[in-house]
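Recap from last week: sequence in, structure out.
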Amino acid sequence: MCEIRRIGSLFFHFQDQLKHTTPSSETIELKDMLSRTHFQAMATAVQKATTSEDSSRMKAGLKISLYYSLLKPAKFVRIKHLINENDTT
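Predicted C-alpha coordinates:
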Protein backbone atom coordinates (compact mmCIF):
# COMPACT_ATOMS: atom_id res chain seq x y z
CA MET A 1 0.00 0.00 0.00
CA CYS A 2 2.80 2.37 0.86
CA GLU A 3 4.58 1.68 -2.44
CA ILE A 4 1.49 2.65 -4.43
CA ARG A 5 1.24 5.91 -2.50
CA ARG A 6 4.88 6.72 -3.23
CA ILE A 7 4.49 5.94 -6.93
CA GLY A 8 1.33 8.07 -7.04
CA SER A 9 3.10 10.99 -5.41
CA LEU A 10 5.98 10.63 -7.87
CA PHE A 11 3.48 10.51 -10.74
CA PHE A 12 2.08 13.93 -9.77
CA HIS A 13 5.61 15.38 -9.88
CA PHE A 14 6.19 13.61 -13.20
CA GLN A 15 2.93 14.98 -14.57
CA ASP A 16 3.95 18.53 -13.62
CA GLN A 17 7.26 18.09 -15.44
CA LEU A 18 5.64 16.78 -18.62
CA LYS A 19 2.94 19.45 -18.73
CA HIS A 20 5.65 21.96 -19.62
CA THR A 21 6.92 19.91 -22.56
CA THR A 22 3.89 17.94 -23.81
CA PRO A 23 1.01 19.43 -25.80
CA SER A 24 -2.11 19.88 -23.67
CA SER A 25 -4.20 17.56 -25.88
CA GLU A 26 -2.01 14.56 -25.05
CA THR A 27 -2.90 12.70 -21.87
CA ILE A 28 -0.16 11.58 -19.53
CA GLU A 29 -0.47 8.04 -18.19
CA LEU A 30 1.35 6.08 -15.54
CA LYS A 31 3.09 3.90 -18.13
CA ASP A 32 4.78 7.02 -19.53
CA MET A 33 6.93 7.15 -16.39
CA LEU A 34 8.86 4.09 -17.58
CA SER A 35 9.30 5.26 -21.17
CA ARG A 36 12.80 6.03 -22.42
CA THR A 37 11.63 9.19 -24.11
CA HIS A 38 10.56 10.71 -20.79
CA PHE A 39 13.69 9.81 -18.83
CA GLN A 40 14.75 13.42 -18.23
CA ALA A 41 11.31 14.38 -16.91
CA MET A 42 11.35 11.31 -14.66
CA ALA A 43 14.79 12.20 -13.28
CA THR A 44 13.63 15.74 -12.52
CA ALA A 45 10.45 14.43 -10.89
CA VAL A 46 12.47 12.14 -8.62
CA GLN A 47 14.71 15.07 -7.72
CA LYS A 48 11.74 17.26 -6.81
CA ALA A 49 9.97 14.47 -4.91
CA THR A 50 13.02 13.73 -2.79
CA THR A 51 14.02 17.28 -1.96
CA SER A 52 12.69 19.03 1.10
CA GLU A 53 10.46 22.01 0.32
CA ASP A 54 11.67 24.26 3.13
CA SER A 55 15.33 23.64 2.34
CA SER A 56 17.33 22.06 -0.43
CA ARG A 57 18.17 18.94 1.59
CA MET A 58 17.81 15.59 -0.14
CA LYS A 59 15.72 12.84 1.45
CA ALA A 60 18.00 9.87 0.82
CA GLY A 61 15.70 7.30 2.41
CA LEU A 62 12.79 8.35 0.21
CA LYS A 63 14.98 8.21 -2.89
CA ILE A 64 16.03 4.63 -2.10
CA SER A 65 12.42 3.72 -1.37
CA LEU A 66 11.31 5.12 -4.74
CA TYR A 67 14.04 3.13 -6.45
CA TYR A 68 12.77 -0.15 -5.05
CA SER A 69 9.15 0.85 -5.66
CA LEU A 70 9.87 1.48 -9.35
CA LEU A 71 12.02 -1.60 -9.79
CA LYS A 72 9.09 -4.05 -9.78
CA PRO A 73 6.99 -2.30 -12.47
CA ALA A 74 10.12 -1.78 -14.58
CA LYS A 75 10.86 -5.51 -14.51
CA PHE A 76 7.30 -6.33 -15.56
CA VAL A 77 7.44 -3.86 -18.46
CA ARG A 78 10.77 -5.27 -19.57
CA ILE A 79 9.44 -8.84 -19.50
CA LYS A 80 6.35 -7.75 -21.42
CA HIS A 81 8.49 -6.23 -24.16
CA LEU A 82 10.72 -9.30 -24.31
CA ILE A 83 7.73 -11.62 -24.65
CA ASN A 84 6.24 -9.45 -27.42
CA GLU A 85 9.69 -9.29 -29.09
CA ASN A 86 9.46 -5.52 -28.89
CA ASP A 87 12.93 -4.96 -27.48
CA THR A 88 15.38 -2.70 -29.23
CA THR A 89 18.57 -4.48 -28.20
